[in-house]
Amino acid sequence: MMPSVASPPLIRLKSLLSTFWLRNILGVCFCICSYLGNVLNVDMFFGVNFLFGSVFVWLAMFTLGASWAIAVAFIGALHTVELWGHGYALFLFTMEAVLVCSLGKMGSTNRASILVLLYWVVFGVPMALLLYTQALDLPWSTSLLIASKQTLNGLLNVMIATFAFTATLFVFPAFRIPKKWKEDNSYSGLLQAIFGLSFLLPILLSEFFELKRNFQRNVSDELAQAEINVRRSSLNTATFLKLETVFWGTSLSKINVSDDLKKIEQLVEADTSASPSQIYSVKNDGSLQLVYGQAANLQKLALPVQILRDTQEKQMSFLLGCHEGNFMSLFAPASGTDLLAFIWRAETAMSISYSQHTARSDFKCVSASPEEPNGSSDETSVAVLRGTDPTASTLRSWLEAAVQAQTSFASLSPAFLQVRYTLKPSILQVQQDTSTAVQRLCFLAMLIILGGQILDVLFRKWVAKFASISEAYLKNRKPAVSAINPNFREDRAISFWLDRFAKAVEHEEHSKEQAQQKFSLLLAQVLTPVFATDSAGKIKVWNPALQELSGYPEDEVLGKPISHFLKRSPVSIVANDARHAKELLFDVSTKSGKTVHLVIGKLGTEKSEIGHVLTSEEKVDPASSTSYFIAQNVGSFKEAQAKLLHASRLAALGEMASSFAHELNQPLNVIALAAGGVAERAKYDEVPKEYLIAKAERIEAQALRAGRVIQGIRNFVLEIGDEDIVEFDPVVKTKSANDLIREQLRLANVTVHINAPSGEIQIKGRPILFEQAMVNLLVNAKQAMERQALSERKVSITFSVHDTVLTILVKDTGPGISKENLERIFEPFFSTKKDHGGSGIGLYVTKSVIEELDGSIRAIREIHGACFEIKFPTAPDATEG
Predict the structure, then answer these.
(1) Who's near 332: CB < 8 A, 6+ residues apart?
(2) Cα 566 to Cα 381: distance, rounded to the nearest angstrom
(3) CA distances from 818 to 162, 792, 815 (A)
């Protein structure tokens, strides 16, 4: 029998995760994923970020425990410092992991969500409001939005982690996982995560995308309205300035502006609705003389004043452009007096011409650079301007944002009319809407988590109720009246199912009882010995046929180990070969002391299992199933087989007669010559003492050599069972086998090469049986090469040891084995050399002998010659070559 090489055990996930290195590698992976999950955040709009790093925090808590979860939370939250410019979120997220892990435990998916909810309600939200309003000086509405968003973010992440973990356990139920992972998991937790995510995520996405669309639509409307307003204001301002310039120019042309300054001041201050801020008299050289108002940084007009004066036919007004954000106009009277220049405040012009004027608006005139063309009225641009401070948060930059619109202004000098107003009221309104939506979603998430906890409690109670109903039903065959509520479909279904289950159990029990009765009757009447044992090898059945065979009545053997009555037979050739590893040969000692040989088998059981059950001394669970065995008395069959083996050895001995004669003749001739030499010398003279001692020692050595040859012949013809099982070197016994038929091989011109490793090889068994097997193989090879050329008759025997298996390859240079004969080569009485006296039992006996030594042999087809591969388990101290 070829020894079964133990296959590597299946590595369980639990043992892997208990190893130091794998746990650390998994923890580092969670840290990296947590950090990346926060880096790859979702920015809904103006700084409302959703982070996903804490998903891996809870996965670490479920699988690795609190320490790794806290480490993962800290590493992942480090990115919030880079994202928002402060470490308050780092503190909040790390404290979340610390408090939840201190109250939760590994694998506690049901408890994690409620603990996260309690953290944010009791500690997280109050602390966030305190930090953001006091430390960061954010408005209450902004702080409330951030705290609500972080709460919703935490609840969503713990739901995602719960879903990922429980869904994995659900999809792969065959995973062997640590007990801590699964002791607190339930279907209610999985249903809560599925329902929560499937309900919350679509609503969240629709809410935020709708808010974002409304915000973008509002900004677009603001830009479009700003463009319309700035165009309209440009026309209105130009018209207003021209009319007011004519009005004031006409009024002042009647006064001597150089002498009556007091009168001009009174006239201007009397009109509070739309009066200029400064009035200048323009000289011919373009220089200016202040007539009214505070002096400005304006000395001279860069205009061809004389040309305007000479070409005028009537009084005219001109828009000059901008000065320090204010508007300038020019009045040219028809009378030929000095030109008048007016400066109008932007606020004055805006209050008259800009319909959207509010306190948040900024209205001014901007001079164009020389590179900018003095375009037409349709050169208008609008844009949203945000804060440029790189350290400011996205939300703060939006709160400082403004809409700027400008359009070209029809004046003598290139200029633009620019209007800018803040978006803060719109941002605050959208922020308020967002905060309301987030709070609404938070409340919804809280309800889902609380509902999941209630569902878990109800589910556990329902399972306990189902268990109690089932137990009572199986015991009494009817449910307790108080346990079943027929008004509910589920209870009615339980009652119906239990009724069918009870009937099926009753039918199965009845069938088993009938089968047991029939089987017991069969065991009592059958003439074949049958016995049964439990998994501990204790006898449970001992039928009358076996009682008659063994002489032991049933009451003397029940409950005793079967190994007390059976022992493994020293020769199991018949069972091993004839029963194909389904049965083993055992010896049973009868009560009278007689030994009976039995073939014992169990249908569907491998030989190694039978041997374990029948010989094991281990303590096994007695509640395990009973194994039945059928025995057959094969004593006569075994004796015939042993005689066949002995006859095979005698046949081989006959073939080795010439070798034995050669081995005996040599020492006998030496003895005869030595003795004759001493006798001849003694006839004629005195024989020296030294000469006699030398001749006596030579005679003794040759006599011992002849004795060893005779002992080898005696050993070779021993009966089976006469030799003890010992450890021996197969290389040495192979050489002995070669020596036994050396003369035959020499006469047949066969050369044998033995290749063995340098170290010693030890196997356990009977050396004579092994030696006979090698003799059979050598004789078979010699006979197979009889038709080969004398120079090509070679046999090689190669030994190699790998792990605990010895492999022997016996190759010859004969014609080989045909494909059709390969499967039958070891069958008894099958021979390809019947015409040359082949008996067909040589290879059959060889196979039986090798399997008796717990080895295996097989024939291999090769291109040239035949090859037999033999494998043995080596002894523990064998060295590998």
Answers:
(1) 249, 308, 309, 312, 315, 316, 317, 318, 339
(2) 106
(3) 65, 20, 9
pLDDT of residue 720: 47
User: Which range (116-125, 397-406, 803-812) has the least confidence?
Assistant: 397-406
- At residue 3 the predicted structure's pLDDT band, cuts being 50, 70 and 90, is very low
- The string of pLDDT tens digits covering residues 333-378 is 776 667 888 888 887 777 776 555 455 677 888 887 655 544 444 5
Q: What angle do CA 205, 209, 214 make, to 5 degrees?
A: 150
**Separation CA 821–CA 839 (nearest Å):** 16
Q: Give the pLDDT confidence of 586-645 residue by residue, as tens digits.
A: 777 787 777 776 767 664 444 334 444 444 444 444 444 677 787 776 665 556 556 666
Are the C-beta atoms of 89 and 77 separated by less than 8 Å?
yes
Q: Residue 667: count other Cβ atoms within 10 Å of its Cβ.
A: 20
pTM, full prediction:
0.51
CB atoms within 10 A of CB 265: 14
Query: What residues have CB less than 8 Å from 32, skipping those under 6 apart?
Result: none
Q: How many residues does the chain have?
A: 881
Residues 6+ apart with CB under 8 A from 328: 319, 320, 321, 322, 341, 342, 343, 344, 411
Q: Which of 728, 801, 804 lies closest to 766, judged by CA? A: 728
For residue 220, the tally of other CB atoms under 10 A from its CB is 11
Rg (CA), the chain: 55
Distance between CA atoms of 322 and 344, rounded to whole angstroms?
9
Cα first-last separation, the chain: 23
Strand partners, 809: 798, 869
The four Cα atoms 147, 152, 157, 160 give a dihedral, to 10 degrees, of 180
In single-letter form, the type of residue at position 102 comes to S
Residue-wise over 428-450: b if at least 16 C-beta within 10 A, else e? eebbebbbebbbebbebbbebbe
792: closest CA among 859, 864, 735? 864
Q: Which helix (H) or strand (E) holds 587?
A: strand 583-589
| Residue that wins the pLDDT comparison between 185 and 872 | 872
343 Cα distance to chain centroid: 78
CB 155 within 8 A of CB 120: yes
Which pLDDT does position 612 carry in this prediction? 46
From CA 481, how far away is CA 473, in angstroms rounded? Answer: 11
Do 585 and 598 touch, CB atoms closer than 8 A? yes
Q: Which residues, other chains included, contact 839 with Cβ-Cβ below 8 Å and sequence gap of 6+?
A: 648, 651, 829, 831
Sign of the four-CA dihedral 504, 505, 506, 507: positive
Q: Which residues contact 271 (CB under 8 A, 6 or more apart)?
A: none
The residues near 596 (Cβ < 8 Å, ≥ 6 apart) are 549, 550, 587, 588, 589, 590, 633, 635
Element (H, E) at 13: helix 13-17
- Helical pair 187-252 and 424-476, crossing angle rounded to 10 deg: 170
- Residue with token string 């609840």: 155
DSSP three-state, residue 9: coil
CB 871 within 8 A of CB 855: yes
Across the beta sheet with 539-542, the strand order is 539-542, 530-533, 627-633, 595-601, 583-589, 566-568
Strand partners, 600: 584, 631
Per the CB < 8 A criterion, the answer to whether 27 and 68 are in contact is yes
Which token pair is 430?
A: 């959208």
CB contact set of 213 (below 8 Å; sequence gap of 6+): none
pLDDT computed for residue 678 by the predictor = 75
d(CA 322, CA 237): 13
Beta-ladder partners of 287:
300
8 Å CB contact between 778 and 795: yes
